[in-house]
């Protein structure tokens, strides 16, 4: 049964993945199928584990039970994330998807720690494992089931761009390696009568812990405020610059309130000599059209700049050449000249990459060095320089 066949039969309008209701149904479908498969494997493996006296099989059985809980929390999380915005949460409940994944992560960690203790006890006090052909065959059958479940969740995760579902798929793939270890334990016990069950159980426990830590990392990043997708940044910049009179974009910040719930604010550079109502109409149109096209809420602040003054053009080009001597500086924006006579000032912002983690003191040093270089080349001006950090890749 292919993934597409299941999706097309259980999700109405499954192609419309930008629709929040459709996205919710993808998460619910993943949760239901995960519960069915993992619950079935748990029941089978817990019976076999007790029957064969194998801590490795019992460990994987309980891991499957944790996966059942994981699928249940994922299902509830997607359901809560689909709730509409309210007075207390004006941007909706989309981050509940991340919160649910975080809960799952800690559940997995608890299971991992418990089985490290159990496996350590089995290593210190080994007991024989009872090999059984039926047990062996059932575990072999479980491997393709887990492989399919991994493929299913990863496919759904990529379709709706859900890190939660992709991480769930990766966890199912870990289960395949764990089952391989259980098979090795049974074969070694059968052919050599040497018990490596505790050691295999320890490996299973470590896999569980790694999986839990990976989940935590995946879900903490968007909750803490990770850098936006470079592809989205590129599309947004390109979209804004496609409108008449907009010549530059800077101070772009993107906020993630959950999958499909994104807000962006940016500054658009426009000619200073254009009628304000005409420019406002362009900005307003850009906000509305791009918000609909990119499925996000966009706010654009307009920055008037003077591009037709020979003095501004000449001085700006001079500053751009000077900034080439400062590799840490990525770009220049909001360049303008104000004042008269001896009080003329060059005002501009320079942008440094977020990878260049510099202190406030180092920023002051950078501003002073740029100021010195600019004033040597342009002695008739003083400067007011702002150092901006780039919040995108």
From TrEMBL:
Keywords: Membrane, Transmembrane, Transmembrane helix, Transport. This is Cation diffusion facilitator family transporter. The chain crosses the membrane at residues 26-48, 98-116, 128-149, 172-191, 198-216. The lineage of its organism: Bacteria, Bacillati, Bacillota, Clostridia, Eubacteriales. NCBIfam families: CDF. PANTHER family: MANGANESE EFFLUX SYSTEM PROTEIN MNES, MITOCHONDRIAL METAL TRANSPORTER 1-RELATED. Pfam families: Cation_efflux (PF01545), ZT_dimer (PF16916). Belongs to the cation diffusion facilitator (CDF) transporter (TC 2.A.4) family.
């Amino acid at each position: 049964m292919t993934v597409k066949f299941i999706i097309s039969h259980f999700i109405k309008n499954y192609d419309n993945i930008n629709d929040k209701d459709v996205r919710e149904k993808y998460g619910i479908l993943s949760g239901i199928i995960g519960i069915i498969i993992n619950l079935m494997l748990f029941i089978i493996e817990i019976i076999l584990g007790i029957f064969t006296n194998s801590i490795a099989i019992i460990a994987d059985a309980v891991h499957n039970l944790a996966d059942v809980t994981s699928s249940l929390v994922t299902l509830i999380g997607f359901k809560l994330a689909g709730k509409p915005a309210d007075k207390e949460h004006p941007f909706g409940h989309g981050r509940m998807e991340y919160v649910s994944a975080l809960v799952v992560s800690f559940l997995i960690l608890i299971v991992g720690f418990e089985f490290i203790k159990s496996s350590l006890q089995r290593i210190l006090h080994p007991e024989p494992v009872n090999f059984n052909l039926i047990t062996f065959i059932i575990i072999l059958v479980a491997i393709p089931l887990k492989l399919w479940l991994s493929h299913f969740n990863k496919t759904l995760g990529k379709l709706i761009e859900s890190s939660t579902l992709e991480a769930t798929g990766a966890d199912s793939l870990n289960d395949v390696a764990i089952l391989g270890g259980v098979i090795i334990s049974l074969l070694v016990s059968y052919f050599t009568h040497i018990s490596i069950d505790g050691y295999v159980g320890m490996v299973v426990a470590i896999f569980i812990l790694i999986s839990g830590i990976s989940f935590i990392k995946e879900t903490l990043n968007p909750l803490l405020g990770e850098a936006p997708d470079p592809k989205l940044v590129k599309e947004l910049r390109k979209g804004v610059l496609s409108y008449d009179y907009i010549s530059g974009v800077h101070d772009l910040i993107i906020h993630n309130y959950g999958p499909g719930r994104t807000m962006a604010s940016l500054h658009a550079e426009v000619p200073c000599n254009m009628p304000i109502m005409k420019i406002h109409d362009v900005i307003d149109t850009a906000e509305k059209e791009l918000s609909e096209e990119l499925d996000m809420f966009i706010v654009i602040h307009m920055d008037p700049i003077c591009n037709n003054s020979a003095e501004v053009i000449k001085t700006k080009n001079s500053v751009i050449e000077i900034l080439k001597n400062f590799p840490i500086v990525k770009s220049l924006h909001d360049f303008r000249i104000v004042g008269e006579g001896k009080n003329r000032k060059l005002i501009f912002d320079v942008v440094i990459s977020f990878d260049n983690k510099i202190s406030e003191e180092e920023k002051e040093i950078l501003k002073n060095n740029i100021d010195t270089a600019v004033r040597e080349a342009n002695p008739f001006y003083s400067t007011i320089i702002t150092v901006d950090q780039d919040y995108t890749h």
